[in-house]
Specification:
Blueprint lengths: L7 E4 L2 E4 L3 H7 L7 E6 L2 E6 L2 H16 L1 H8 L1
Antiparallel strand pairs: 1-2, 3-4
């Protein structure tokens, strides 16, 4: 799929982006499915929502918050 721009538009009382059919097929999602938005060093990534992965990320974030000082020492 070539690079393309998407337009931010009004959807009811909200703001949204219309995803073209080709992108939905590549993501393997359809109307009504949920997407996960991940912030990465390279930008924003959209992936199909995976409850198991989401739960694992929540656990990892809690550990990183609680053990911030220890992780900082290990990184030195």
């Amino acid at each position: 799929m070539p690079n393309r721009t998407l337009k931010v538009t009004t959807v009811g009382n909200s703001t949204g982006v219309i995803l073209p059919k080709e992108l939905l097929e590549k993501l393997r999602v359809q109307r009504g499915d949920e997407l996960m938005v991940l912030e990465t060093p390279d930008g924003i990534t959209l992936t199909p929502y995976d409850p198991e992965f989401s739960e694992q990320m929540d656990v990892a974030e809690n550990i990183m918050r609680k053990r911030r000082n220890l992780l900082k020492k290990l990184a030195e």
